[in-house]
Amino acid sequence: MRIEPILTEAQRTPVELPLLSEVFAPFREAPSDRPFVVAQIGQSLDGRIATVSGDSRDISGPAALDHLHRLRAHVDAVVVGAGTIAADDPQLTVRRVEGLNPARVAIDPRGRLDARGRWLHEDGARCLLVSAAPRTANARAELVSLAAREGVIAPAAIVEALFARGLRRILIEGGARTIAAFVEARCLDRLHALVAPVIIGSGRAALELAPIERLNAALRPRTRAYVLEGGDVLFDCDLSAYRQYLG
Description:
The chain is an alpha/beta fold.
C-alpha cells in the first residue's frame, strides 16, 4: 500500500496531539457492529523496548506517555499479557490526561496470576482475566474462559469474547509478544508505534514476527507520522487493509 509523506508542513515542529483530531478520528468513527483494535508500542530508534537486563522505564518521553494515556481514554478495554503484569505491575489507568479508566484485561492462558497486582485496584473499572486454566486464584476479575493451543489463546478469540461483553474499542498494550501475536493474527485495525530519540544498541526487540523470505510479503500499512514534544515520533499505521474480521 502507498505510504503517505511522513511530515506535512504543519507537522515539522512538535505538536500537541489534542489538536490533531485526525489521530483519534478512527476511534470515533469505528463501526458499532464489529471490534476496533489498536496496538501501541514504545521503542528506541534501533527497535528496542528494553535493555538486555530488562530496563525500559525511561525509553519513552513525557509526550509519548501522555499519548499512551490518551489512547486508554479512547478505548473500552486495555489488554496486556500475564508476563507484563508479573514484570511491571502496571496500573493501566488514565492518569496523565482527562478521561475514564477503561476495563483492564489480562491474558493468562496457564493461570499463573494470583489476586495481587495494581491492575486489580477497585476503582470502578472492570477487570477481566482471559484464561484457559480450569481454575484461577483471582476472585476480583471476571473470568473469560477460552481454549488454548500449545499454551496460546488465539487473538481472534480474545477479541470476539471481549466484543461479546460490550468492549468494542480495544487497546493491545503489551508486552511485545502479545502485540506480535495480534499483528500476525491480522487482528489489528491500527498500530501506534512511538519511536524515542534514543539508541540502545542491544536488548529486547519491539516486535518479533515470523520471518519472511521476500519483501513483497511485508506489511506496508498506510502511515502518518507526528513529531511530539521532546522528539518522540508517533507512527500511526493503518492496518485495516490486512484485518481479518470475525464473522
